[in-house]
Amino acid sequence: MKKLSKYLDQVDDKLIALKPCKISIDMNNYKLNDNIEIKDDIIWVKNLLSQIEFDDLVLSIILDYSVEFQKIKSIISEQTITLEYNKGDTILSVPIATDDIKDQVNYVQRLVGGRELYKNPEHLLLKVFKVYGGSISDMDIVNFELLISQSLRDRTSPEIAARLGKKWDPIMVNLKNNVFASGFIQGLAFENINKAIETGLVSEHDLEPSILERLVTGELN
Predict the structure, then answer these.
(1) Structural domain of residue 22, as residue ranges?
(2) pLDDT (tens digit, 9 = 90+) per residue, 83-123?
(3) How far apart are CA 176 and CA 155, in angstroms?
(4) Do the domain assignments include residue 17?
(5) Looking at the domain assignment, is residue 221 inside a domain?
(6) Is residue 75 packed enough to be buried (19+ CB in 10 Å), middle (13-18) or exposed (0-12)?
(7) Cβ–Cβ < 8 Å for 38, 32
(8) Rounded-to-integer distance, Cα 117 and Cα 212, Å
(9) Contact predicate 213/186, CB 8 Å
(10) 119 and 83 inside one domain
(11) Which of 72, 120, 146, 180 measures 20 to 30 Å from 42, CA to CA?
(12) Domain boundary among 93, 111, 134
């Protein structure tokens, strides 16, 4: 196991290259001027999913907070951003922290809207717990697991959770829209008759009534 201390060094809020390296950022994970901004001398990302490559080591760098890359030598295309650094160069720095409450509100908006960046369900759960767990909330981790379960739906049948699909093929959805795909009565309750009728006519699954539907029909008091 190679020691990272031979490749990278952290000095205050900066990450320093101890060997020549190359950073690759897949633009398919980002939306320009939303969670990534390309400026004259820096590149800012809201969250980081990247790969760093040395001559004898390749690894992923995943950070759940915003960072700024120093744009020393870069190749930028629609698909990939490649940044090259020499020994002693500052690779990235962490900007001054923003207001915690604003970050929490923005995070849940991205999650509910199906726009949150994540690597896998475990990573997504840790991010939710980091933002809303600990001293922030007394919610149990089961509550966070339920939120993630609702956010990740089956790719071929988004009316059901991914964990209930025939095979594990999750996709993050906009929960505000997904409510119309989860049941006929539920769609009517949210005053979207067209969506409700579409769900009732084309759904391939005979879904159990949701809690909202049971409330509407009086089955749950």
Answers:
(1) 7-93
(2) 999 999 999 998 865 455 566 667 777 777 788 888 888 88
(3) 17
(4) yes
(5) no
(6) exposed
(7) yes
(8) 29
(9) yes
(10) no
(11) 120
(12) 93
Q: Please state, in angstroms and rounded to a whole number, the distance separating the CA atoms of residues 219 and 214.
A: 5
DSSP-assigned states of every residue in 79-110: SEEEEEE-TT-EEEEPPPP--HHHHHHHHHHH
Q: How many structural domains is the chain composed of?
A: 2
Count of Cβ atoms closer than 10 Å to residue 217 Cβ: 11
The answer to whether 118 and 80 have CB atoms below 8 angstroms apart is no
Other C-beta atoms within 10 Å of 33: how many?
8
Phi and psi angles of residue 23, each rounded to the nearest 5 degrees, phi first? -105, 135
Check whether residue 133 and residue 195 sit in a common domain.
Answer: yes
Q: Which residues contact 129 (CB under 8 A, 6 or more apart)?
A: 141, 144
Assess contact for 67 and 94: CB atoms under 8 A: yes
This prediction's pTM: 0.50
CA distances from 209 to 122, 134, 151, 176 (A): 29, 34, 19, 18
Q: Where are the beta strands (DSSP E) in the chain?
A: 8-11, 14-17, 21-26, 36-38, 42-45, 48-53, 58-63, 67-70, 73-76, 80-85, 90-93, 152-154, 170-172
Give tens-digit pLDDT for 109-162: 777 778 888 888 888 888 887 777 655 556 677 777 777 887 888 888 877 888
